[in-house]
Amino acid sequence: MFSFAPGGPAAATTSNNSRAVYDEAAIRKAQERYRLCFQSLATAALTIGGNRSISECTTDTTTTQTTNNTTDTTTTITITATDAATLLANGSGITRQPPGPEILLTKDFIVYTNPNTQTLTTTIAGTEVTIHATPTNYTWDWGDGTTTTTTDPGAPWPNQTITHHYTHTATNITTTLTTTWQATYTPNGGTTQPITGTITTTNTTTPYNILRTTTYLTDQAETTQQH
Entry's PROSITE patterns (predicted)? Predict the structure, then answer.
C-alpha cells in the first residue's frame, strides 16, 4: 500500500537570523521528481505485487538564498569653509607694538600674527574629524582708511617686517587683521580631503590714540612756564 501527501515533499528552510527567500523553481523541480518517483513505484507494485515503501522516493529540499538583515549605511561627512571658519574663531591672533593706549606719529607701528598651522577636532554624525588649517595671506586694516595685504605674518621688534606710519592724530583707532586659510579635514578612519571655499578669520586690536609730539627749545619751555 502506498500513502501520498498531495503536493509532494515540503521545502525546508534554515534559520540563521537572516531572511530566507524561497527558490520557487527549485521547489517545482523537487515536486516533479517526487511525483514521477511515486508513479514509478505504483506501477511496479501493480505489476509484480508486494509492498514497496514510499520512502524510496528521495525527498528533496529546496535551496534558499539568504540576505543579511543588517544594512550597511554609508555616512558622508563634509566640512565647509563656514564650518572651518567657525572652528577657527580665535583666528591667527594679532599683536601690536607699542602695546599701550598711545601711538606716536613719529614711531613705527608694528604688528605681527601667528603663522603656524592649527590642528582642530570636531565630531560630526558620531565621527571624529581632524582639521589642519594653515594661514596663507593677511590683510591689515589700519583704521585710517588704508590696508596692507601680504603673505608675511610679521615679526616683533627689533626684527619687524610689517609696520605702518599714521599721518594724522586720531582717537579710539583699531587695527583689524583678516587671515585667509587653506585647510584639510580627515574623518576618523577616512581619507584626507581639502576644504573648498574661502576660509577667513578676523582679529582686532584694543583701541589706541594717535598722538603728535611737539618739540620745544629749553628756553621756550621755560618762558612758557614763566620761569
Answer: PKD
